[in-house]
Design goal:
By secondary structure, this protein is mostly helical. Helix content is about 95%, strand content about 0%. The radius of gyration is 30 Å and the shape is rod-shaped. It starts with a helix and ends with a helix.
Amino acid sequence: MKSHDEIGTLAKSFNDMISKLRSSREELAKHERENAWREMAKQVAHEIRNPLTPIKLSIQHLRQAFKDKAPEREEILQRVTQTVIDQIETLYTHSNRILSLC
């Protein structure tokens, strides 16, 4: 009988280890998915931020030109509006690429 009890204990321990291993594998897969989403979110944020910087700087330049009544403010207005339009197009392109992944 003693031998049978030892085999039963060994089998139970083996099954417990398999269960823990399965849980660990599921937890690892969950963390890998979360990390992948986190990395993708970082990339998306970066792609959005890149066009925003020239837009902000251009608008600030335009604001200052009009505040100072700069003689070339009309040319600055044209450059700034073109910069904003170009950067909006960049944002559209990035958003379309992201949507194509969904």
